Amino acid sequence: DAGNDTGVAPGVDLVALRVFDDAGAGYFSWVENALDWIHDNKNSFENPITTVNLSLGVSNWNAETIPAWANLEDEFAHLEADGIFIAVSAGNSFSSFNEAGLSYPAASSYVIPVMSTDDSGLLSYFSQRSSRAIAAPGRWITSTVPDYAGNNNGIADDYATMSGTSMAAPYV
Fold first, then answer.
1. Contact 37, 3 (CB under 8 A)
2. Counting beta carbons within 10 angstroms of the beta carbon of residue 34, is it exposed (0 to 12), middle (13 to 18) or buried (19 or more)?
3. CB 162 within 8 A of CB 168
4. 32-46, 68-82, 105-119, 132-146 — which is least confidently predicted?
5. Which residues contact 20 (CB under 8 A, 6 or more apart)?
6. Would you say residue 127 has pLDDT above 90?
């Protein structure tokens, strides 16, 4: 909450784990470590962790199956066994492939892939898609951004408007 901006889930308990660097670069091994941390610490808070959002994906993968190099499946299986819901961005490369399919890790059978819709409720032109995915607002979403991506004034008071399945997945 900030001023008149109440957000989508005001008052929610939130545990944020930063996985990638300021440029959005990183490794799936870093994601593995974060997912293991969630499994190990799911009951370490007054309210247990019940949901995970992964706003990430590999732009050159478009399939209903996981790639041979997929390395998050063990962690996803643990979280599913823990009863933790996992929402993952479906991917933004539909216009590159022009056929149904999901990015990885959205293609994992352990997660719920999330597609992007526009203000009319139509699938966004860029959103990768699948019959097993669900859709949420992901076009022209105003959200918080780190200070370096905003006005760089040293105060965490920055917003930007973006589009993508990474904007839709947190809604779910």
1. no
2. middle
3. no
4. 132-146
5. 26, 30, 56
6. yes
Closest CA relative to residue 91, chosen from 62, 71, 70, 112: 62
Decide: 107 and 65 in contact? Cβ < 8 Å: yes
HSE, CB side, 13 Å, CA atoms: give it for residue 16: 5
Residue 52: which of 39, 70, 65 has the closest Cα? 39
Q: In angstroms, rounded to a whole number, what is the distance separating the alpha carbons of residues 67 and 104?
A: 7
Cβ contacts of residue 45 below 8 Å, gap of 6+?
13, 15
pTM confidence score: 0.92
pLDDT tens by residue, 87-108: 999 999 999 999 999 999 999 9
Contact predicate 82/35, CB 8 Å: no
Nearest residue to 123 via CA among 94, 101, 96, 146: 94
Half-sphere exposure (Cβ direction) of 67: Cα atoms closer than 13 Å: 16
Q: Are 129 and 146 in contact (CB under 8 A)?
A: no
